Amino acid sequence: MSAQSIPFVVPVVDISAYVRGGTDAERAATAGAMDRACSSVGFIQILGHGIPDPVIQGLKDGVDAFFGQPLEAKKEYRLPAGVNRGYAPPKSESLSLSAGVESASRMNDFFEAFNIGSQASDFPDLDLSEAEYPANAWPAVDGFRPAIEAYYAEAARVARTLTRIFADALGMPTEHFAPLTDHSLDVMRMNNYALPESTVDLDGDLTGMGEHTDYGIVTVLWADQVPGLQVVGPDGTWHDVAPIDGALLVNLGDIMGRWTNDRWMSTLHRVKPPIINGTIRRRRSVAFFHDGNAEAVVDALPTCVPAGEEPHYAPMTVIENITAKLAGSRNGQLYAGAGSVAARILAATDRAKPPANRRGT
Ligand SMILES: O=C(O)CCC(=O)C(=O)O
Ligand SMILES: [Fe+2]
Fold this sequence. Notes:
InterPro entries: DIOX_N (IPR026992), IPNS-like_FE2OG_OXY (IPR044861), IPNS-like_sf (IPR027443), Iron_ascorbate_oxido_reductase (IPR050231), Oxoglu/Fe-dep_dioxygenase_dom (IPR005123). By secondary structure, the protein is α+β, with helices and mostly antiparallel strands. It contains 9 helices and 16 strands. Strands 1-2-10-7-14-5-4-3 form an 8-stranded mixed sheet, sandwiched between helices. The protein has a 4-stranded antiparallel sheet with strand order 6-11-8-9. A two-stranded antiparallel ribbon has the order 12-13.
């Protein structure tokens, strides 16, 4: 069967054997399913994550309360460029630049976002840099902080559980990633895709969030079921993806690609929310990026480099990779080192366009 004729499915993996505890055989089955999912699609629907429904409801309510404020109120929570915290208004980022690809219209991603993450003060015993682990800026919105912190703690737990499954799936000791992620640079980005009616220019190059790969180890994504998220499948074309009931989406970031020497790949994705009767259908998502300790060196795992072969990438620290990617998305500097990510975007884009010389067929 050719790659073109394989139907695109995002595999579903139930991780309860690791969340609630299971037998060795159950955990081995989960790790095997994870390996197949990560080697083929790089996006996974996970069930059995154990996040209580009220925590997810609190997250949705908090996101609605924050983004429901007037733009001017939200802008109070804007932090200086380069600080990955606080409010990011629409059109302040261009994700495709992070991946080393020029977008047709720079800084045209219309999502607005609010970011929180791990702070130096969370680790008083370590001498962490405030620049790398900046302090959060909490908005004065009733109930927002406790609700968002409750979900953040759950997402962090799920991300760490995933790294244990990954270690088993890759033939490494289960706790291999623990010392590399004990003060992980984690960021949680709450995304709101909406534009006031009067600002929607349907002739423009309207992008919810430009094509990109995530930067870190793994992303745990809560999203509502409004369509918009698209993922490049093994056939090189874009496919719509929405979470099934009760599931979180999980996708691998570039660091996992480096650790696994491309046995697993960070998967390209973008967001194009539907436009119905001239208005954008509002869509929300919350991405928890688990990126690893800033100074952790990312070098191919020994189980992922066949005997006699060289690793595909030179060692790099977590912070070096994240800094280069953020310079792309935030400051408009093309990340020339994005390598295979840029090549994959260009290939996917080309395939999606009709051939130039085809007319009227
Ligand atoms: O909105 C989504 O579903 C995806 C968001 C995303 O890709 C990101 O924040 O990196
Ligand atoms: Fe993403």
